């Protein structure tokens, strides 16, 4: 769904030569907008959905997309860069070339922005039932799936990772399959998609074992404790405050202290909106020592007092 007038043409079997990828087994569409051309190739397998989109635009493009159902997907930015945000403008994420990450969006309308130039992206949406059945092969996805099922946040992200050689080879196989070469095309595509997910699992396992992610995991698990401070983290990880702040901020773009405030505020708002707790009860559940300090921080963060969430 594009904010500028769009003309959509079915070009299945006739993808233009300038595109990097040509998926013989996929349906294809050319989308002409007033800032350029978009080529979409997509394939619906009974266990996953795959789409490759290539953009050739001469000025910036802002577009909307609708999530009809809450979906988990592996997003891969192959070339260029893209900025995602909620329809009201709230920032979600930015992705640059050769980066991938697992994410989910809840049902709703979202937007993205692309600068002028050429961009390529690909995403795989595995069916939820298939992921659940095979979760033992992707242990890092399990807590993320639990989060998707339990919280009310409109989106969530796992760590972004570089697209290394192993994943690149598996992705090239997935996008280059033909019905002539592969007698059982569906089985071959499923095998290739599993390999892509497997390589992301390896990359994210390595990344989440690094210090910044261990610190973040500690904050996520212990934000309810009012004793959680930079000093506690320094002692726990045997590092100086300077190293703590610089290491964390280099990875997440925010200090541990500010991340903890953000996490506590978001969790408090969820509790208040769910009506499971009153403002005079919530402060104890999100790590504050008293209601006054919680109320001041909440109003500073959201611009209104906790009582207005009821």
TrEMBL record:
It holds the Pfam family HTH_18. PANTHER family: HTH-TYPE TRANSCRIPTIONAL ACTIVATOR RHAS-RELATED (PTHR46796). InterPro entries: AraC_XylS_family_regulators, Homeodomain-like_sf, HTH_AraC. It comes from Sphingobacterium alimentarium. The lineage of its organism: Bacteria, Pseudomonadati, Bacteroidota, Sphingobacteriia, Sphingobacteriales. This is AraC-like DNA-binding protein. Gene3D superfamilies: Homeodomain-like. Residues 213-310 form the HTH araC/xylS-type domain. The keyword RNA-binding does not apply. Keywords: DNA-binding, Transcription, Transcription regulation.
